[in-house]
Amino acid sequence: MNNRPILIIAVAAALSLATVSMASIWLKQKDDADTIKVVVATRDLEVGTRLQPAMLETVSWPASAPIQSPLHAMEQVHGRVINMPILRGEPILVSKLAALGQQGGLSSVLKEGKRAVTVKVNEVVGVAGF
Asked: 6 with 48, same domain?
């Protein structure tokens, strides 16, 4: 019996398997090199929400799609308060968070030196001026 064709097929199969695994490793390394780690929301977050680790995850973000002032580690956002709505899967940006140490709410939205005043409004006051 002639074993030469079987040997050629076995060698070809082994070489193709080795080639596929090397290509897979190379592509994975290439993908890792072209990405950055970014913290994103795992659910929709409302204004005034204090960020907790359960609300966030770290994902790989394409370096070719840059975003301004992303946060890269959970430690940077833990306990911070949101001052703009954030959707699920959206990166957590510095511009959407209240300043460090602020409690959130209206005080986190007001600029330094500004004040907010509440005014009672009812039907009578609401139509004034017409």
From this structure: no
At 27 the pLDDT is 84
Task: Report pTM.
Answer: 0.57
Lookup result for tokens 């929709």: 44
Shared domain for 82 and 41, answered yes or no, is yes
Q: Residue 38 corresponds to which amino acid? A: V
- List all residues 6 or more positions away from 116 whose beta carbon is below 8 Å from its beta carbon: 106, 110
Residues 63 and 10 in one domain: no
In sequence order, the 6+-apart residues with CB closer than 8 A to the CB of 105 are: 48, 81
Task: Say which residues have a Cβ less than 8 Å from residue 35's Cβ, sequence separation at least 6.
Answer: 60, 61, 62, 63
Q: Do residues 21 and 68 both lie within one domain?
A: no
Mean pLDDT, consecutive 10-residue segments, the chain of 130 residues? 87 96 87 79 90 89 80 83 90 85 68 82 67
